[in-house]
Amino acid sequence: MPELISTDTTTITSVLVANRGEIARRVFATCRRRGLATVAVHSDADVTALHVREADAAVRLPGNAAAETYLHVDRIIEAARRAGADAVHPGYGFLSENADFAQAVQDAGLTWIGPPAEAIRLMGSKVAAKELMRAAGVPVLDRLDQDAVTEADLPLLVKASAGGGGRGMRIVRRLDDLPAAIESADAEAASAFGDGTVFCERFVEGGHHVEVQVMADRYGTVWALGERECSLQRRHQKVIEEAPSPLVERVGPGMRDRLLEAGRAAAAAVGYVGAGTVEFLATEDGSFFFLEMNTRLQVEHPVTECVTGLDLVGLQLDVAQGRALEGAEPTMTGWSVEARIYAEDPADGWTPQTGTVAVFDVPGVGAEFDRPPEHGIRLDSGVSAGSVVSTHYDAMLAKVISRAPTREAAVRELTTALRRTRMHGVRTNRDLLVATLAHPEVLAGTAHTGFYDTNDPAALSADTGLAPDLGALVAALADAAEERSRLGHLVAVSSGFRTVRDGLYRHRAYLVDGGGADGDGVNGSEYAVGYRFARDGLELERLPAGTQEVRLVDLAGDRVVLELDGVRRSFEVSRHPVPGQDEAAVAIDSPLGSVELRRLPRFVDPSARAPEGALVAPMPGAAVRIAVSVGDVVAAGQPLMWLEAMKMEHVIAAPAAGTVREILVSVGQQVEQGTTLAVVDPAAAEDGPAA
Amino acid sequence: MTILRSTLDPTSEEAVEARESMLAALDEIGEEAHKAVLGGGEKAVARHRGRGKLTARERIELLLDRDSPFLELAPLAGYGSSFTVGGSVVAGIGVVSGVECLLVANDPTVKGGASNPWSLRKSLRMHEIALQNRLPVISLVESGGADLPTQKEVFVPGGAIFRNLTRLSREGIPTIALVFGNSTAGGAYLPGMSDHVVMIEERSKVFLAGPPLVKAATGEESDDESLGGAQMHARVSGLADHYALDEQDAIRIGRRIVARLNRRKAAGPLVPAPRPPRYPAEELLDIVPPGLKAPFDPREVIARVVDDSDFDEFKPLYGTSLVTGWAQLHGFPVGILANARGVLFSEESQKAAQFIQLANRANTPLLFLHNTTGYMVGKDYEQRGIIKHGAMMINAVSNSTVPHISVLLGNSYGAGHYGMCGRAYDPRFVFAWPSARSAVMGAQQLADVAYMVSKASAESRGLPFNEEGMQALRTMITDQITAESMPMVLSGLVYDDGIIDPRDTRDVLGIALSAIHTAPVEGTSSFGVFRM
Predict the structure, then answer these.
(1) Does residue A546 belong to any structural domain of this protein?
(2) Does residue A273 lie in a domain region?
């Protein structure tokens, strides 16, 4: 690490992180290494979160809504005052790019670990930032005059000026579609950001997302700490990131020089201080265009740390204390790839998932929140076993990062680490990450930002996990052994012993959650396993697909060893309760992959069945509006209520014409997935409102 | 600890021959058992399923705790009669909600589950087992009542079914009736006499008389539902305690009823994880010589049945034709009496009488492994008091109050069958190996006796003796007795509780011993006068 000299310094002794989850833990990790005190803030939902438990002190921000907690400027500054913090780190998201907050922190006499408020403000407006960048000589895509665009300009991208995260963004491929696209983007931007300004620019097909990590001190030194490529995105959110960029490597060193120079120029143009990222849209010919500058630490900063050996949070602290960047600009060595584990269902429109983390174990972790040894895995996680994942905040749970001398090794090591990761209790995108990393385009480093548009996530990860029928078989055998061992007597009598061969099998059924929900609050495929232990060994009603012979080698409640067509395979079995369900979930991990199944009850109490016509919440969320009341006659498809989950409103519509018999939620009420929201009586449709 | 050493060589010619013969017998028995499993045949089963109903065995399967054992009893009842093997009833001991219960299910695919004389015999035997071992009884009812063509054999003794149910109840043994279909006329008392009754929507039909009979008797117009539907019994008559929506719901409720019975066994196994025998069960097929021509060492059987093959012999040097000793089986203590060389002499009889008394003092159940041709005959033996000594053994067996289990491994002839606790001596369970043979005496012996008696009779009366005709008769008698002493015939008469695969012996006895320990094991010191 380069030497830093002290000049006009302030001293930080205690840092409050105005954030949660893994980034709060990441900042705390550096603070601890440097002997600084740590202060957490937390919402009510986060009272037992890891970042709170780890901090030296924690201050409660009452409530759960972001606006009441992690976005509440006054409360956070008050928290810093109470806990005696003398500096505030904003993390990413929440208030990290809020100029007013940056200002308020400094006005309160606290050290702001971030860029100057003015730089945040300048980069906050897309249109203004772009003009500024053009003036500084940074390549930008020309803004097109909406009224003068021609066929030659197609395809077009309509963007909200104040936008982010893909909201208010439309791709237009036919001129006729332009007015409608502008109108709808305008409306969406207005409702999302309170500013309906939109503009048009050329849409770059097959573009790559390449960004430059910059670090600047107060004295005019700007370092460009190499580039990252984050082309693998879903809904404009990054999924897999790496440093260096395979595109830049392909094009050649000239591109890197131009890119890093543009990064430095961008930062310098706004008088930037601290860590920031200049994002570009790049193409195969080596050209690139400024997208935006993120005036904060990025989620994907660990890959830069892995290839440069720097502690970016440490540098942020140094710069905030007025130290200068000294020595030569660091460069990249080796390769690093990061994958983000999200609590989401990629196969079901990336719907966010909730639950309690039952098992979370990444094998081969060489460091947490720190650079791992070469061929080691770095884990930056916000959760551990027992953590509750709610709908209140971002669905990202953890980042798994590999570091290796070559890209090939880094990708392979990350793939293996993810495949062997045991993560249960909450549905995640893990299988998709594994499948993505194994995709030829990703292996070749040629995947561009449209990867998930051309590669359906469901199809991509279809064969990644453990085959569910094999998983169900393993679960059934393990459950049988487990239940037998709990039976107080006759334990030594052969399992399922029968004196007369009656041809019957013992049955156990499991559900592989397909995500989302249907009328019963569950959706997925059912796997019934028929088995019996005969004199000659295990007999199955049906063999797992593609298997000719299954032999049972060893069996216990938590471990099953099978010989499948002559190949011995071991499976680890764990169980965890599912909130609101009588039956536990059974998780199976093996080198073949993992699968999580929900045990189906052997008997169904008819009184516990969801009534016919019951509408259940397709995902966790809050009821924001209810359009009908009990007794209303409704038509098929008529919206009954709206559920807000992860910033999106989902309509709950009548499945058939009928009468609303019951409404079981009220406006504002938070509901879990599968909760019955309302019951529509289809039979009563012709009879009019029920008495 | 005394570990038995086996000298059995499974590759020897004798062992291979024994195995082949045993496997052939097992195949034959398996075929008969398969008939019982088929019940009323494929068509009847398909028709039954077509009504959305489960078969008797499927109902039992669903009622049992998954992966728990089920000891089916008297599966071959009715073998050799004109009725379907199995007596239109499936019965046995199984674990329901953690409680060992006796399950009796009508097989409605066999003539609508009608009770024939064999159904009755089997059901009454099941009640006996339930009463002796204090096992809750779960009746899975769907029966058209008595088989009318044989009503004269069923009607009078059949009344005992209902009497038994209330006597079980009086003894504090719960009785549960799950009514899956018809349970009418006399059958209506089955739920009527049970502690707990579950009926199923639109399925259960429980009345003394159906609409035509009511019309004939009183002129009243009625229908099935108002006379005996589940709704009516659950809401109006109160005969049904629980109203189930379908079969699986009835079974679910049945399991909940058992879960709330607050049953606790009188005793459990002595060790939580009993050790298996040191020799493979598979070799139990290799021990019995075909045709029982030669005796075999029962220690070879014991070594493959008891925990850790650990057997402490009592009086090993005295009365060596009977092996006695102590062992543990699936964790339960047991005293074993096993015939070693077929014949019982005075010494063996006295040894047995003493051993049985000791078991009673130690409250230890007894296991009888039969391979006996009876008590020794002959001038010397009579003069030395073989009758007195045999009587001592029978006295001890008869008055012993610890539970007895008999397994007929081979021969079980004459008074030896009694002394070794044959069915008439009320063992808790009697099982037979396919190699078992039982009769008043051996077929050849019996034929010889008949031949000699008639020859002597002819000679004494000075009549000519038809040697040729008598030899034919001799052959005929031999064939008849041989057939009658076959285990399937005895099993068909419900003289045993089932023919078992020798390899299953340990598990069958384990389940039986566990069931037995539902009730307390109490020995006695009170016997008849021992004639010395």
Answers:
(1) yes
(2) yes
How far does CA B339 lie from the centroid of its chain? 21
Q: What residues of B are in contact with residue A493 (Cβ under 8 Å)? A: 69, 330, 507, 510-511
Q: For position A347, which CATH number holds?
A: 3.30.470.20
Q: Judge if A108 and A72 occupy the same domain.
A: yes
CATH code of the domain in which A617 resides? 2.40.50.100
Classify residue A668 as exposed, middle or buried by CB count within 10 Å of its CB (0-12, 13-18, 19+): exposed
Same domain, A351 and A282: yes
pLDDT of residue B80: 92
Q: Is A67 near chain B, with CB under 8 Å?
A: no
Which residues form the domain of A648? 610-684
B419 touches chain A (CB under 8 A): no
CATH number for the domain spanning A65: value is 3.40.50.20
Tell me the mean pLDDT in the region B79-96. Answer: 95
The total domain count for chain A is 5
Which among A489, A497, A535 has CB closest to B265? Answer: A489
Which residue, chain included where needed, has tokens 């290494």? A33
pLDDT band (50, 70, 90) for residue A394: confident
**Which of A480, A487, A489 comes nearest B269 by C-beta?**
A489
A594-639, pLDDT tens digit by residue?
999 999 999 988 776 666 677 877 777 888 888 888 888 888 888 8
Kindly determine whether residue B98 and residue A488, on different chains, have CB atoms separated by under 8 Å.
yes
Extract the runs of DSSP E, i.e. beta strands, from B76-118: 89-96, 99-106
pLDDT in tens, A87-99: 999 999 999 999 9
Hey, are the CB atoms on A491 and B508 less than 8 Å from each other? no
Give the pair of three-digit tokens for residue A368: 């947490």
Which residues face A214 on adjacent strands?
A224, A276
Cβ-defined contact of A480 to B66 (cutoff 8 Å): yes
- Do B72 and A498 lie within an 8 Å CB cutoff? yes
Q: How far is B60 from chain A (nearest CA, A)?
A: 11
Structural domain includes residue A1: no
pTM for the model stands at 0.83
User: Nearest CA to A296 among A316, A269, A324?
Assistant: A316
Q: What CATH number does residue A189 fall under?
A: 3.30.1490.20
Residue B376 three-state SS:
coil
A494 in contact with B, Cβ within 8 Å: yes
pLDDT single digits (tens) B189-243: 999 999 999 999 999 999 998 899 899 989 999 999 999 999 999 999 999 999 9
Among the candidates A202, A220, A246, a domain finishes at A202
What percent of chain A is predicted at pLDDT more than 90?
A: 63
Report if residue A118 sits inside a domain: no
Q: Is A635 helix (H, G, I), strand (E, B) or coil?
A: coil
Name the band, by pLDDT with cuts 50, 70 and 90, for residue A195.
confident
pLDDT computed for residue A622 by the predictor: 84
For residues A232 and A193, membership in a common domain is answered with: no
A164: confidence class by pLDDT, cuts 50, 70, 90:
low
Question: CA-to-CA distance for B290 and B280, rounded, in angstroms?
Answer: 21
Instruction: Give yes or no: residues A319 and A382 share one domain.
Output: yes
Q: Are residues A455 and A489 in the same domain?
A: no
Tell me if chain A has a CB within 8 Å of the CB of B511.
Answer: yes
Per-residue pLDDT tens over the stretch A634-657: 888 888 888 887 667 778 888 778
Residues A359 and A217 placed together within one structural domain of the fold:
yes
User: Are A256 and A375 within one domain?
Assistant: yes
- Nearest residue to A231 (alpha-carbon basis) of A450, A531, A453: A450
From chain B, the residues in CB contact with A536 under 8 A are none
Q: DSSP label at A498?
A: B
Q: A194 with A173: CB under 8 angstroms?
A: no
Is A609 within 8 Å of chain B by CB? no
C-alpha torsion A364→A370→A371→A377, nearest 10: 20
**In a shared domain, residues A369 and A388:** yes
B61 vs A contacts (CB less than 8 Å):
502, 504, 506
Task: State whether residue B427 sits within 8 Å of chain A by CB.
Answer: no
Say whether residue B514 is in contact with chain A using an 8 A CB cutoff.
yes
Domain termination residue (choose one: A417, A436, A460): A460
Confidence of residue A518 (pLDDT cuts 50, 70, 90): very low
DSSP single-letter state for residue B187: G
